Amino acid sequence: MDTALRGAEFAPETTYLNTSTCGLLPVRAADAMAALARELTGGRPGGAGDMETVDAVRESFARIVGVGADRVAVGGSVSVHTGLIAASQRPGAEILVPEGEYGSLVTPFVTRGDLRLRQAPLERLADAVRPETALVAFSSVQSADGRIADLDAVRAAAAAHGARTLVDASQAAGWLDNPAGRWDYTVTGGFKYLMCPRGVSFLTVTEDAQRTLLPLHAGTFAARRLWESVYGPIDDLAPTARRYDEPPAFLPYHGAERSLALIEEIGTEAVGAHATALAGYTRTALTGLGHTPVPGDSAIVTVPGLEHRVPDLARAGVLAAGRAGGLRLSFHLYNSRADADRALEVLGG
Question: Which phi and psi (to 5°) does residue 168 adopt?
């Protein structure tokens, strides 16, 4: 990454290789939230925040993932979006998920109590789709080890058997090009590679799939005409995916507007090229040190069995994560070759 960009947009005080846990907040996003917080302490005419800002975030995210803004619902967490989809499944429906999938994508289907959850290895997920499969739910990039799913194969298998698809893009959106319109539903936590504050999350629904979802948590923000339907039952919901909105947390969304603007300015392709180049360099170097990282072309580098080195890295000012017994290093826009070399120095010492 260009040094000038790093200094203008980010202020890391550590060697931060932990975006898969939580992305760094751009300075511009922190400034926007601070400005709103100051207004809130003094009293502002519009109350807690602006719906215009929330809609700007919706539109920005829509451009990043390649769908119309009318197909995007906003909220606060992936598990709530997934819960909405789970609640809308018919009793007894078979839900196919990868083994070891992230809990927020799996648990809402389990807690329904009347759905059949079936698991398959990620690399054989497409082969595991069968005629009775109602929904294939999986992450485009796995949280535990950064593996990228065979998106084309799963999509084709689901289409061949009439199954709908749900993709969690939390570990991918912002660096991996995967148009949301290819899937019936996508869910995306914004606080990782989109560098939004926690409390920003997105659901996309194709026009056809929208008829399958019940707007279970519809409130005033789901009305066709905002602020004209405040009291009493709302009987005219938005005809777009906005009918699935959660009431937005305005403070995080005011920061998210600036974060997503930065992603758009630089471009997902450029971010992905930068992050995957650093990850590839790190994989090669780790192999030279005698380790065996998970292969692939992901922005996430994982070395199985090396979780115990996370404290060593932390003592040296390198922030990484331990997941499922492995060491996970995740690269993003604000990282440089020097960051990779610092981690490698510690791991080789």
Answer: -90, 115
24 is written with which tokens? Answer: 């760094």
Round to whole Å and give the CA distance between 209 and 217. 18
Which domains, from first to last, does the chain contain?
Answer: 3-25+267-348 (3.90.1150.10), 33-265 (3.40.640.10)
pLDDT tens digits, residue range 126-168? 999 999 999 999 999 999 999 999 999 999 999 999 999 999 9
Pairing label, strands 116-120, 94-98: parallel
How many other C-beta atoms lie within 10 A of the C-beta of residue 98?
24
Q: Which of 123, 198, 135 is nearest to 168 (CA)?
A: 135
Whole-model pTM? 0.96
290: tokens are: 């005698």
* Separation of alpha carbons 129 and 140, rounded Å: 16
Contacts of residue 336, defined as CB under 8 A and 6 or more positions apart, other chains included, come to 1, 3, 6, 278
Cβ 9 vs Cβ 27: under 8 Å: yes
Instruction: Please tell me what DSSP assigns to residue 291.
Output: -
Which residue is it, tokens 């990779």?
340
Q: Tell me the backbone φ, ψ of residue 185, rounded to 5 degrees.
A: -140, 145
Residue in 180, 107, 117, 176 with CA at minimum distance from that of residue 146: 176
Q: What is the pLDDT of residues 283-292, one digit of tens each?
A: 999 999 999 9
Beta-bridge partner residues of 187: 168, 203
